[in-house]
């Protein structure tokens, strides 16, 4: 297995949920972590927790939908840690509503963060990994990137299908040529803040009812999944990880 001690990782969407859990797990494994999100107060609290446990962290107040902010954040990360071994494109939003409600602002937010955010971060980080001739890019897709759940999830699923496709194509292009691994993590139901982004009362109720009906995954379960793939031997690329609760149909 690959020893991660001394490696570096940049994690987006790190202020809560899967991102925060992954930052803590990687830091405990000896990884120097850059934690990026828009909620600076939460990043400061997470950094304090990591440092308090003997880890090393850099907090980056960063909007993945802003290419200039992304480039600036990645530059600061490189200036601090000299290299970037792992990128975890994890920032995402999931406001659920049916198409005929025409919540176009929410559609655009999902496209900007879920798709463009992944592209912006990858574009900023990849040149450094190419120069290193090494690296590992993780992208958070979803079970919704495999099939559309039903009414209300159409645009969200479209963005996650895009992430799955981009991940597979990226793996083909940079694996052999640049020695860079790419992993698409496709979670099922995870206990995160995503449902809180839904403004439609009925959809919000359905999401809460579903959460009460089955045992969701914890964010730490997905963090463990990423750790597994990151620690695989260098010649092994775990390309996809489809992880869902045992009870989820």
Distance N terminus to C terminus?
33 Å
Task: Kindly report the average pLDDT value.
Answer: 96
How would the global form be characterised?
A: globular
Helix content: 40-55%
Poorly predicted parts: none
Q: How many helical stretches?
A: 7
Question: Which percent band covers the strand fraction?
Answer: 15-25%
- Strand-and-helix sequence, N→C? EHEHEHEHEHEHHE
Q: Enumerate the strands of the largest sheet in spatial order, edge to edge or round the barrel.
A: 3-2-1-4-5-6-7
Q: What is the number of strand segments? A: 7
Compute the CA-based radius of gyration. Answer: 17 Å
Sheet with the most strands, sense and barrel status:
7 strands, parallel
Structural class: alpha/beta
